[in-house]
Amino acid sequence: MRGARGYTLVALVMGMTIMAILIAAVLPLASTEAQRDKEDELIFRGFQYAEGIRGFRRRYGRYPNTLKEMFETRPRTLRKLWKDPITNSLNWGLVSLTTGAPLPGTTSPRPPGGASPTPVPTAAPTPGFGAPPTAATGPVTGVYSLSKKKAFRLFNGRDVYSEWRFTEQTLMNQAPQPPAAPPGPGIGR
């Protein structure tokens, strides 16, 4: 009878050790999955803002001056003021027409006749809302996350959240591509 107790205790300790090893292996996977969900949510919310900006421009003939304006102006072009899921903050970086330098990695095309380049929407160093702006924001043409963390995925060739720009141009680039034409005669047969 005494020997059976010892085996039970050894089996219990081994079972607990195996469970601890399995939990330690699963936790990083769960953390990675949670971060990927936040990335999906960032893309969704960024596109919501980009679509709201596009709707505001179409409806009122100009870009909004703040993100809050899209929500407060009736009829609304934004359902709600979204938090940045990566920073869990109401503050977003703003892409604006009022700053002079182009977005990182972009250049503005030179118009015919060699005139000066056309202004390109650029990142404004002001908060989206929730905190008082440090400078006039001007027309808002898009948003981006203020997080400098490296992402798990690429979005428009960028792997840092603060480089993920959500503008009308991003919406047009993300439009579904038309289906490929069927193979021509003699191809694939």
Structural account:
- This protein is an alpha+beta fold.
- The chain has helices at 2-60, 67-72, 168-173; strands at residues 93-96, 122-127, 140-144, 150-155, 158-160, 166-167.
- A hairpin with a 2-residue loop joins strand 4 (150-155) and strand 5.
- The radius of gyration is 25 Å and the shape is elongated.
- Mean pLDDT is 78; it is low at 100-136.
**How many E strands?**
6
Quickly count the helices.
3
Percent of residues in beta strands: 5-15%
What is the helix content? 25-40%
Name the shape in a single word.
elongated
Radius of gyration: 25 Å
Reading the helices and strands in chain order gives HHEEEEEEH
Strand count, sense and closure of the main sheet? 4 strands, antiparallel
Q: Strand order within the widest sheet?
A: 2-1-3-6
Distance between the termini: 77 Å
Layout of SSEs?
Elements: H1 2-60, H2 67-72, E1 93-96, E2 122-127, E3 140-144, E4 150-155, E5 158-160, E6 166-167, H3 168-173
Antiparallel strand pairs: 1-2, 1-3, 3-6, 4-5
